[in-house]
Amino acid sequence: MRGAFDVRRAFYDGDRRTLLLGLRSRDAAGTDASLDIDGLPAGRSWTLHQDGVAVRTGTTDTEHDTLRLTLPVAGDTTLALRRR
User: Fold this and answer.
1) Phi-psi domain of 51 (left: phi exceeds 0; alpha: psi -120 through 50; beta: other)
2) Could you tell me the pTM of the whole model?
3) pLDDT digits (tens, 9 = 90+) for 11-51
4) Which is deepest, 1, 32, 37, 55, by most CB within 10 Å?
5) How far apart are the first and last CA of the chain?
């Protein structure tokens, strides 16, 4: 994780296959958060929700199972990465 933000909470719900992250930007103007998420099985679909809204979807590469995302964070933000 990179960016001017704090992680307020992090939780993985195995039953729902969802990683939940609570982030807060350190600057009132907001920041970009860069996340590298390892361990996603190759060939699996995923959806990223930011504050309850689906913002990205994709499928992990069969040769590379690290998911790299960059997204804006302003104030308190909740991210939910759900594997399908």
Assistant:
1) left
2) 0.84
3) 999 999 999 999 999 988 888 889 888 877 788 899 999 99
4) 37
5) 23
